[in-house]
TrEMBL record:
Taxonomy of the source species: Bacteria, Pseudomonadati, Pseudomonadota, Gammaproteobacteria, Pseudomonadales
Membership in a protein family: Belongs to the PlsY family.
Keyword Acyltransferase: yes
Coiled-coil ranges (or none): none
Record protein name field: Glycerol-3-phosphate acyltransferase
Catalytic activity entry: an acyl phosphate + sn-glycerol 3-phosphate = a 1-acyl-sn-glycero-3-phosphate + phosphate
Entry-linked PANTHER family: GLYCEROL-3-PHOSPHATE ACYLTRANSFERASE-RELATED, INNER MEMBRANE PROTEIN YGIH
Record's keyword terms, sorted: Acyltransferase, Cell membrane, Lipid biosynthesis, Lipid metabolism, Membrane, Phospholipid biosynthesis, Phospholipid metabolism, Transferase, Transmembrane, Transmembrane helix
Origin species: Aquipseudomonas ullengensis
Alphabetized NCBIfam families for the sequence: glycerol-3-phosphate 1-O-acyltransferase PlsY (TIGR00023)
Location of this chain's protein in the cell: Cell membrane
Assembly information from the UniProt record: Probably interacts with PlsX.
């Protein structure tokens, strides 16, 4: 089942809710507006709260559902984590949209929620606190994701390697944001 669920999770992750919702609503393509990122934060900028919330929920479910299915099928935590990572990679590099996807934060949050809810709550709390203090979504994401690693190393060590890969991918996808943060040009809300 593991080898079947990995490609299915990738294909599910490749669905871009930001792009699909923009097309359905007749709104602008999020890849051509705002930050150019097809994710919930940019949808808030270019399409408003309703579509941003729907995008967030859709992206979150893309990470959560494959992990829950793997859990129900009795796969190990490590296998669940690799399956969840496949969904995140689908979001980052979607087959259906020429491999140009989002930053993966909401999909990663869904994956983490399915794997180990206390780590997801830690990430959410860190993200929210950072965002409230700085009004910068990218900085909040860059702080929240790595903070889960020590907790996972302690409580769910089997998930640590896939989560380290995930953290590296999220930092990589935020490299432009990191340059802007260091240069003082990053967008704030």
């Amino acid at each position: 089942m593991f080898w079947l669920l990995v490609p299915l999770a990738y294909l599910l992750g490749s669905l871009s809710f930001a792009i699909l919702l923009s097309r359905l609503s007749g709104g602008p393509d999020p890849r051509a507006s705002g930050s150019g990122n097809p994710g919930a934060t940019n949808m808030l900028r270019v399409a408003g709260k309703k579509l941003a919330i729907l995008t967030l929920l859709g992206d979150l479910l893309k990470g959560l559902l494959p992990v829950l299915i793997a859990s129900l099928l009795g796969l190990s935590i490590q296998q669940q984590a690799w399956i969840g990572l496949a969904a995140v990679i689908g979001h980052l590099y979607p087959l259906y949209f020429r491999f140009k996807g989002g930053k993966g934060v909401a999909t990663a949050a869904g994956m983490l929620l399915g794997l180990y809810p206390p780590a997801a709550l830690l990430a959410l709390a860190a993200w929210a606190l950072t965002f409230i203090l700085t009004r910068t979504s990218s900085l909040a994401s860059l702080i929240a994701t790595p903070l889960t690693l020590p907790l996972l190393a302690w409580q769910q060590p089997a998930a640590l390697l896939p989560m380290c890969v995930l953290t590296g991918l999220i930092v990589w996808r935020h490299r432009g944001n990191l340059r802007d943060l260091f240069a003082g040009r990053e967008r704030h809300f």
